[in-house]
Design goal:
The structure is a homodimer.
Chain A (H helix, E strand, L loop, with lengths): L2 H8 L3 H9 L7 E4 L2 E3 L2 H16 L4 H12 L5 H11 L10 H18 L8 H15 L9 H22 L5 H33 L3
Antiparallel strand pairs in A: 1-2
Chain lengths: ~210, ~210
């Protein structure tokens, strides 16, 4: 198909498609004449993935490029690619809380990972993101909120088990990484939305009748 | 304190502080002379909250202003304010998947809320966000991933129970809404980070030895 049809099919404008090609997020179309290119189903799929990572995952373009590079590398061992793709999808924060707070928060993350027996590196992107959140809670005077951490870790285990069972049962080797990327980003969106719905329910049961 | 000290204490630059005051995110300082204002502990606290909502929550400025308005309104019933503040913290997506997909996804969200017996409005911000994620999964050819939904809903219930228990046991009436805002935004960050750590563990157990 021509670029106009690709645009109509995906709802992404022609200038945006050209921008993604220049930025390396979308492979160029196959040249059919000096100034005309042809696009296929793979381009439709890739464009949708880019939009999901951008609009729903809120990933910056550079992170999307890194994640797609991992998706396209068929030679890396599954576990390694999963780890690196998933770590690149952790948000990075512009500004970190004070160093004392961060050192203490990192220690709490290490302790949590050890206490849970998780085979995970607490100093990676995810551990660091958790430490930033814990340090920010302290700075904001809501450090007590960290007492929910164990309930959250239980919930995270439940979710991760479902994630991996899905991958193990449904996903062919060549699409494991794409599935992990889609599942990570859309899974986050699902989980936070479900948390809001479950909070509304719990809040209604706690405060709805009384007030 | 003067604006320079407020800036040093919080790590937010003087021009940015002035911008937040103009945008209504931070109350103006008390004028001590025609061109000098004085700021207090409440300004430090509010600035930190704005930065957490911005940097960690990724909320747009307009949403932060709405949320802070709810935080400052002491007359609204708790349950109502919680609902409206929490709903304003659901991300809105620029572009929605095709209408057919969305209609079907909205139906699935309604069915889920009904099956769980959740006292929550499936057509609100959170339900809509969940429907967008489900429709995007289908569009991307990963519709099967929605089978994790029940495990995610279990996890969300566990988390929401911990959230509400924390609020019920630790939080004074006048700070319930601020706690809900902080807990919602930082809780999301904690939960997605924990999900990554638990995924790393589950992935290592599933694939780490074999490959």
């Amino acid at each position: 198909m021509r670029i106009g049809e690709l645009s109509r099919t995906t709802g992404v404008s022609v200038p945006t498609i050209k921008f993604y090609v220049r930025e390396g997020l979308l492979p160029a179309g196959e040249l059919t004449s000096p100034n005309q290119a042809s696009y296929g189903e793979a381009h439709v799929q890739r464009l949708r993935l880019v939009r999901a990572l951008l609009d729903i995952g809120g990933l910056p373009l550079a992170a999307i490029r890194d994640v797609l590079t991992a998706v396209d590398d068929r030679d890396l061992p599954v576990h390694e690619v999963l780890g690196s793709a998933v770590n690149r999808m952790v948000p990075r924060y512009d500004r970190e809380p004070g160093d004392t707070g961060m050192a203490e928060a990192r220690k709490r993350v290490e302790d949590l990972v050890a206490a849970r027996g998780w085979r995970a590196h607490p100093g990676g992107g995810a551990g660091e993101a958790l430490a930033v959140a814990l340090a920010a809670l302290d700075e904001l005077g809501h450090g007590d909120f960290a007492e929910v951490l164990d309930a959250y870790a239980d919930a995270a285990e439940r979710v991760a088990r479902a994630d991996l069972e899905y991958v193990a049962h449904h996903v062919a080797r060549e699409s494991v990484v794409e599935s992990a990327v889609v599942g990570t980003v859309l899974g986050d969106a699902m989980l936070t939305a479900l948390r809001r719905l479950a909070q509304a329910d719990a809040s209604d049961r706690t405060y709805g009748d009384a007030l």
